[in-house]
UniProtKB/TrEMBL annotation:
Family: Belongs to the eIF-2B alpha/beta/delta subunits family. MtnA subfamily.
Protein role: Catalyzes the interconversion of methylthioribose-1-phosphate (MTR-1-P) into methylthioribulose-1-phosphate (MTRu-1-P).
Name of the gene this protein is made from: MRI1
Swiss-Prot/TrEMBL site (Transition state stabilizer) positions: C181
Organism domain of life: Eukaryota
Pfam families registered for this protein in UniProt: IF-2B
NCBIfam families: eIF-2B_rel (TIGR00524), PRK05720.1 (NF004326), salvage_mtnA (TIGR00512)
Protein name: Methylthioribose-1-phosphate isomerase
Keywords: Amino-acid biosynthesis, Cytoplasm, Isomerase, Methionine biosynthesis, Nucleus
Length: 385
């Protein structure tokens, strides 16, 4: 199934770079032009674009755009005077972009990848223009490689789940899967991670229904996942975040599939706030809990979840909801409203929580599926990274 144009989070034509403004979805589809590294930083920080792979893609593509335009300028900018000046300039840009949302390890992986290309070029004695072109190519590859690996991990995870269900004496079809947040084409360069697994099950006629949480306070589930599932015509059911336990009590759910913003060496996983709640409830009901994320999300330098930095969003964001006025009377009018008393103090608003490895059944990357050795609560991720 091809990715629908309306589900493309990033559009690139030569040096023209656009993103869909996810703050306005699902009611308004507006593409925002990115004309500078500063524009990319703002889009990531303000969550006009979100999802760890998509963030990394935009950051890398903005560097490519910056260098493409520099090479076409007359005269050439000063930072293209020598390899050393290019190195200083580019390292400053990469450090700046990394600070936009540091919990998403894919962003760090992308900036490190470009840094390595830069350092390798300088060390090899390449000319400044060749190094700049290498950086452009590498930045574009960060985004281009994403779709293929997403399809690989979706297949790995989907087939693993079907096999587990069959081991339990069930037919391996009509599978109901719960997901949290948004991990589809809007969060990546295409197809998706955990939502990609659901899409794969749908494409192979193995899916019953996709269930998804609203994912407060930013509502990436009710705004974005709902939009993607509706567009792809995948049977789905939305639930409030507080309904997960009730869902598990009263309906047959075969698995929970979520994405990740960072996976520690032992398998502890940081993902959108509310993921840990779902994992605890899944363990209580013996429901497999699957993390689906690219290799770039695994951070082997972090031993466990206690070392993962957790981003806290501005408290005001937890007090606001956005959408369109209802009833609409045929007009689409965006609105943002406050749902709390004005001036409320004492607001706790982390973007992510950490699910311990002991609550995770399987971790899937584009290289395969990792499970814990019997009797242990930690993963050996060596064969899937």
């Amino acid at each position: 199934m091809a990715t629908s144009p309306e589900l493309t989070s990033i559009k690139v034509i030569d040096d023209k770079l656009e993103i869909v403004n996810q703050l306005l979805l699902p009611h308004v589809t507006e593409y925002v032009e990115i004309n500078s590294v500063e524009d990319a930083y703002d889009a990531i920080k303000s969550m006009k674009i979100r999802g760890a792979p998509a963030i990394a893609s935009l950051a890398a593509l903005s560097v490519s755009q910056h260098l493409i335009r520099a090479l076409r300028a007359t005269p050439l900018p000063d930072f293209l005077a020598s390899p050393d000046s290019l190195q200083t300039h580019t390292e400053t840009i990469l450090a700046y972009l990394y600070q936009s949302r540091p919990t998403a390890v894919n962003l760090g992986a992308a900036t490190r990848r470009l840094t390595k290309t830069l350092h390798d070029g300088v060390a090899a004695g390449k000319g400044v223009l060749k190094i700049a072109q290498d950086l452009i190519t590498e930045g574009q590859l960060v985004a281009d490689e994403d779709v293929g690996r997403n399809k690989s991990m979706a297949k790995w995870g989907g087939e693993w789940l079907i096999e587990q269900v069959k081991k339990n004496g069930e037919p391996g079809e009509g599978l109901n899967v719960l997901t949290v947040c948004n991990t589809g084409s809007l969060a990546t360069s295409g197809y998706g991670t955990a939502l990609g697994l659901i899409t794969y099950l749908h494409e192979t006629d193995k899916l019953g229904k996709a269930h998804f949480t609203q994912t407060a306070p930013y509502h990436q589930g009710s705004r974005l996942t709902a939009y993607e599932l509706q567009t792809l015509k995948i049977p789905s059911v939305m639930i409030c975040d507080t309904m997960v336990g009730s869902l598990f009590q009263h309906h047959k759910i075969h698995a929970v599939a979520v994405g990740a913003d960072r996976i520690a060496r032992n398998g502890d996983t940081a993902n959108k706030i509310g993921t840990y709640n779902a994992a605890v409830l899944a363990a209580r009901h013996n429901i497999p809990f699957i993390v689906v994320a690219p290799i770039s999300t695994v951070d082997l330098d972090v031993s466990d979840g206690s070392e993962i930095p957790i981003e806290h969003r501005p408290p005001l964001e937890a007090c606001l909801v956005r959408g369109i006025l209802y009833p609409s009377d045929g007009k689409v009018e965006q609105a943002q409203v406050m749902i709390t008393p004005a001036g409320l103090e004492g607001i706790y608003n982390p973007s992510f929580d950490v699910t311990p490895a002991e609550l995770i059944t399987a971790i899937v990357t584009e290289k395969g599926v990792a499970v814990k050795a019997e009797g242990t609560n930690e993963f050996d991720l060596s064969h899937i990274v």
